[in-house]
Amino acid sequence: MNTELLVSDAAHFRVDYEINPYMHTEVQPDPVAAAAEHASIVAAHREAGRRVVRVPSAPQCPDMVFTANAAVVRGDRAVLGYPPPERKAEIPYFHEWLTRHGFDVIEAPHPFSGQGDALACGDLLLAGYGQRTDRGMHGILAKALRYEVIPLRTVSPRWYDLDLAVAVIDTRTLAYCPQTLDEQSGRRLQRLGLDLIEVGLDEAARFALNLISDGTTVTMTRQAPRLAAVLRGRGLRVVELDTTELAKGGGGVRCTALTLDNPPPREPS
Ligand code: ARG
Fold first, then answer.
1. How does residue 267 score in pLDDT terms, banded at 50, 70 and 90?
2. Phi first, then psi: what are they for 4, rounded to 5°?
């Protein structure tokens, strides 16, 4: 898992609007540092043996570096994101890229944060809602991608996407911050029978959970040393990176890559 990733670039990354509580138009990313940060993330993926493909960012799309919101992909199918109006202009670029690369692309009829709110874990899809994703998308995702959808509601705009609250480490292991989910969702997660690593609110707020794991190497922010230590203690290779510029847009490592290699369901559709 997570060995084939679609990224963009930070060439046009800036804060033109405030659509999450981490964004402040008066706090702009430094363009050189942002480009370096993004380049280090891509280099870390390559060092981990992951294949990285690129869609160039468009000048009028200041958040296009966060490709995770473009879609969610399983096998050769992609369900496109339906972002807030400020980010609508990104979608045609991703639609075109996915179509050109042979994906069967389905448009979302309701607000949907793409992979930001749709984390694949084997045959399960951990599906966020309550912020950027309309719950009406869950049935559509289940049908289109043949996942067993696990609805998880985050409790605050601080967790505007599920990928800030929950991370898939491997198909048997999740990391999550219990305070980010409503009670029913927390119970639903506990009933899955997966190994759960708990992360504190302080590290979650510093994008600890916005990580990419392929089951061997975890690529994550430098801002969460406790989680990094726990993961190392479990035998994982952990690569910690600077994410201070991306954080000004309210994102981290996970947000900058759309996973293209989620395995399709076993039986034919
Ligand atoms: N500024 C972007 C937004 O608010 C950040 C998106 C980060 N993506 C993510 N998957 N959490 O839409």
1. confident
2. -135, 115
